[in-house]
Amino acid sequence: MVLDMLPILTGEKSKIDFSFGITPDADNVVCQSFPDIEFIETINVVGYVKNMSDYMFLHEDISLKYKTNCARCAEIVENEMSFSFERDIATGGVSEDNDDYIFIKDKKLDLDNPTEEQLLVELPSKTLCREDCAGLCTMCGKNLNLGKCDCKEQKGDPRLAILRELIK
């Protein structure tokens, strides 16, 4: 989404509210970075841009629902999350290489880039179905959350056998 900043830049308004949705597709950087996450609904973004005596900032509240596989047992997990963030807006006098600011170009502010950047930071690198997930048996592949398997107790990595002897 691109926001017209002219009302703030001319002093007509000191705050602009906005609301939009993002539907990530395969070409989206978020989907490419998290290929195992499927977004169940449109990602909702609500926020505002505020000018406070020549200091402008962007505030966004983001909420989303997604599903992915548990990192331990591979069961499908549906999860929802919401978070907020703020970014400073620069109109000039700051190098565009500075990642601390977002920049107004042609009196417009692109909201997609900071939103996607924050999604990349906030989305979990792994999701568990529950905190105490037991995972899968490494021998037979049974989901250990459903009960113990019939496999013999594992002796562990044979390369570490000397360390087990030291512990005894």
Please supply descriptive tags for the structure shown above.
alpha+beta; 168 residues; single chain; 16% helix
What does this entry look like structurally?
The mean pLDDT is 89. This protein is elongated. The chain is 16% helix and 34% strand. With 168 residues, it is of the alpha+beta class. The strands form two sheets. Strands 2, 3, 4, 5, 6 and 7 form a six-stranded mixed β-sheet that branches. Strands 1-8 form a two-stranded antiparallel ribbon.
Broad structural category? alpha+beta
Strand content: 25-35%
What is the H/E order?
EHEHEEEEEEHH
Q: Quick one: overall form? A: elongated
Number of helices: 4
Average pLDDT score: 89
The main sheet comes to: 6 strands, mixed
Q: Can you count the beta strands?
A: 8
Rg, nearest Å: 24 Å
Share of residues in helices? 10-25%
Distance between the termini: 63 Å
As residue ranges, the low-confidence spans are none
What layout of secondary structure does this protein have?
Blueprint: E1 2-4, H1 6-9, E2 15-22, H2 29-33, E3 38-39, E4 43-51, E5 56-69, E6 76-90, E7 101-103, E8 108-110, H3 112-122, H4 161-167
Parallel strand pairs: 6-7
Antiparallel strand pairs: 1-8, 2-4, 3-5, 4-5, 5-6
